[in-house]
Amino acid sequence: MKKHNFSAGPCILPQSVFEQASQAVLNFNNSGLSILEISHRSKDFVAVMDEAQKLAIELLGLEGKGYKALFLQGGASTQFLMAAYNLLEKKAAYLNTGTWSSKAIKEAKLFGEVEEVASSKDKNFNYIPKNYSVPADADYFHCTSNNTIFGTQIKDFPTTGGIPMVCDMSSDIFSRKLDFSKFSIIYAGAQKNMGPAGTTLVVVKEDILGKISREIPSMLDYQTHIGKDSMFNTPPVFAVYTSMLTLRWLKEKGGVEGIQKLNEEKAALIYNEIDRNPLFEGFAAVEDRSMMNATFNLKDEKYKDLFEDLAKAAHINGINGHRSVGGYRASMYNALPLKSVQTLVNVMKELETQA
Amino acid sequence: MKKHNFSAGPCILPQSVFEQASQAVLNFNNSGLSILEISHRSKDFVAVMDEAQKLAIELLGLEGKGYKALFLQGGASTQFLMAAYNLLEKKAAYLNTGTWSSKAIKEAKLFGEVEEVASSKDKNFNYIPKNYSVPADADYFHCTSNNTIFGTQIKDFPTTGGIPMVCDMSSDIFSRKLDFSKFSIIYAGAQKNMGPAGTTLVVVKEDILGKISREIPSMLDYQTHIGKDSMFNTPPVFAVYTSMLTLRWLKEKGGVEGIQKLNEEKAALIYNEIDRNPLFEGFAAVEDRSMMNATFNLKDEKYKDLFEDLAKAAHINGINGHRSVGGYRASMYNALPLKSVQTLVNVMKELETQA
């Protein structure tokens, strides 16, 4: 019995991807070898890396616009320091919308001055600040597009007046259409909408690099990886392969526009129930609600055990909220079927009946 | 038909590991979830990480000796800079035995003075320098235990007189018994004897840390990862799981001592044939020959096509030498069966007959 997997990440991927990845561990491309035992320099794997990079650029609508897609290691946490290492000469501007923004700010401070242009810390990050301005003398502006823990998401990105925009899109990349050419660097740990944990997509506009006086260690220098097509050192072969399979699946689903429709449907279903059901209340400000992670609480804790028992009986997995927020979080990444959200909504209705 | 896989890395792993890993991609621990979609904070995965760390320490004979095993990302290439970032205050001593040592030296120079205590570059790294001394004022001494490209291996490690020894054991970790407590840091990309590409084992003696004045970004600080049991950020779940399976397999095979016997048998078989067969010659100095990677050449290039055709017909994969050396390289990591080496030796004998 497959579960309805609302895990915040690593999270559900398409079932067809699990099946293909499982088969490749036994016999990759009918080569008689496992994907785990082939050289990353082999023709077959070079083709995988190439396709993964091309699909990422294509799905973001960035073909011919001077961008390069890299598949690196170390997660967004490594990008927190790499972005600053490569771009921060004097001052950077950061928008603070939660735990991950705060961590990015902490790392950047090791490399220069950081101006926090706005923060929603005053209300435990339950909203996205608006009406801030990005200082004209900043080397770059950094923001987090979706806040997994708090369930908020930036709907309108600021106009930066030519200041390069760097965005951590770990938890909503490939989930909705945006003008991605507004960003100079987009980075995302794979383990939400793209693949298994173990690789990080970094999409870099090449012309923003090489402007810093600092010496950069090879592995931390975006130019190293661009020059070697993400093959400067041994890449995480299986994670890249599985990401490529997931990006292929996304393309078949109509790409970012196609999946956005499904994501909107799923989000409407759960938020409508949160707002309708007298036993629940949402955590995030309504206008800033995330399409990926719906955070909500029981108004009365006395229904906790009953709700969780009903959810478990319905084979629902991974809806406990993060400790900073409490309550519940339904993560509805690209691969989560509508019927999983419907199942959760039915449990919420059932609770109302039984309560 | 399975191939005889002599790939230099990523390389062959035990067939039973491929089967278990493939199954876990469909249904991990009979949970109804793929290993790729579970939270790294789930009880089941925390148990995997814990077992992997314990097995690494146990198999190296380092229990109760103040060491911590970490499973990180970024490969040995990231360790080149992390070792220096964490330990190099003024001066470090490096032994240069090939491509990977040279790369480690390049990165360390960004952080302080590097004294190259000896190098075998004069003979294209076909031997291991001896009779050098480690300066008493070095912060640490760094060496590469096995040189995959050149097929050399350090048999006797120097006495460092209390200077911490840091060793890149990427290509021979867990292959032979050593007094591992002589080392303060051992690091190794997983993709030879330990697992798939995508995780890096770092074994750190905790008391050598915290002695540096430099500020270290969180992800590059060994203390960050020690404090969080390799879970500071999302670890590469599948690579760690598959490494754990491989370490379990190694323990069942009698651990490092058990596998060493098999590795010695395989190495004797191929080197005896290289020395006996009048068509071939070895590349590395005899006393420094690697038990993992045998490098050899045809004395007369005119037999190249015939040799490679015979090898292909025998389902032999991955014996082309690295471009810096040319010729052939038979990588015989832990999981390579004796019969694969016997098959290659038979092909070498057959070439002699047909030539």
Write the layout of secondary structure elements.
2 copies of one chain form a homodimer.
Chain A: E1 4-5, H1 15-26, H2 43-59, E2 67-72, H3 75-87, E3 91-96, H4 99-108, E4 113-119, E5 141-144, E6 146-147, E7 152-153, E8 165-168, E9 185-189, E10 200-205, H5 222-227, H6 237-252, H7 255-276, E11 280-282, E12 293-298, H8 304-313, E13 316-317, E14 328-331, H9 338-354
Helix pairs in contact in A: 1-6, 2-6, 3-4, 6-7, 7-9, 8-9
Brief write-up:
Chain A has nine helices and 14 strands.
Please provide a written account of the structure:
The structure is a homodimer of 355-residue chains. By secondary structure, chain A is α/β, with parallel strands linked by helices. Chain A folds into two domains: 15-252, Aspartate Aminotransferase, domain 2, CATH 3.40.640; 255-354, Aspartate Aminotransferase, domain 1 (Alpha-Beta Complex). Chain A is built from nine helices and 14 strands. The first copy, chain A, has helices at 15-26, 43-59, 75-87, 99-108, 222-227, 237-252, 255-276, 304-313, 338-354, and strands at residues 4-5, 67-72, 91-96, 113-119, 141-144, 146-147, 152-153, 165-168, 185-189, 200-205, 280-282, 293-298, 316-317, 328-331. Chain A has a seven-stranded mixed beta sheet with strand order 2-10-9-8-5-3-4. Chain A has a three-stranded antiparallel beta sheet with strand order 11-12-14, covered by helices on one side. In chain A, strands 1-13 form a two-stranded parallel sheet. In chain A, a hairpin with a 4-residue loop joins β6 (146-147) and β7 (152-153). In chain A, α6 packs across α7 (255-276), α7 (255-276) runs parallel beside α9 and α8 packs across α9. The two termini of chain A are 28 Å apart. The mean pLDDT of chain A is 97. At the A-B interface, α1, α3, α4 and α6 of A face α1, α3, α4 and α6 of B.
